[in-house]
Amino acid sequence: MPAVVFTTEKFKELTYATANSLGMPKARIMVVPHPLGGTEEETIIDWAESAVDGLVEILEV
């Protein structure tokens, strides 16, 4: 079953480093803007809609 890790820009490097340290250098990672907490719902929805094409591309690999 395909899986994708979602992370924000602030934690991008940590996410990739963790995936590598766990032996998963090809982990599918989707990076979205930061922060999610405290951001207006409308903005989160816009970010999610903007991420859809990238998510589909990640899943096709």
Outline the structure in words:
This protein has one domain. It is flat, with a radius of gyration of 12 Å. Strand 1, helix 1 and strand 2 form a beta-alpha-beta unit. The protein has two helices and two strands, in the order βαβα. The protein has 61 residues and is of the alpha+beta class. It starts with a strand and ends with a helix. The chain has a two-stranded parallel ribbon.
Largest sheet: 2 strands, parallel
- The structural domain count equals 1
- Per DSSP E runs of 2 or more residues, the count of β-strands stands at 2
Low-confidence stretches: none
What order do the SSEs take from the amino end to the carboxyl end, as H and E? EHEH
Strand arrangement across the biggest beta sheet? 1-2
Percentage of residues assigned to helices: 40-55%
Number of helices: 2
Average pLDDT score: 95
Structural class: alpha+beta
Radius of gyration over C-alpha positions, nearest whole angstrom: 12 Å
Alpha-carbon distance between the two ends: 13 Å
User: What spatial form do the alpha-carbon principal axes imply?
Assistant: flat
Strand content: 5-15%
Keywords:
two-stranded parallel sheet, flat, 61 residues, alpha+beta, 2 helices, 13% strand
Topology:
Elements (H helix, E strand, L loop, with lengths): L4 E4 L3 H10 L7 E4 L8 H20 L1
Parallel strand pairs: 1-2
Brief account:
Helix content is 49%, strand content 13%.
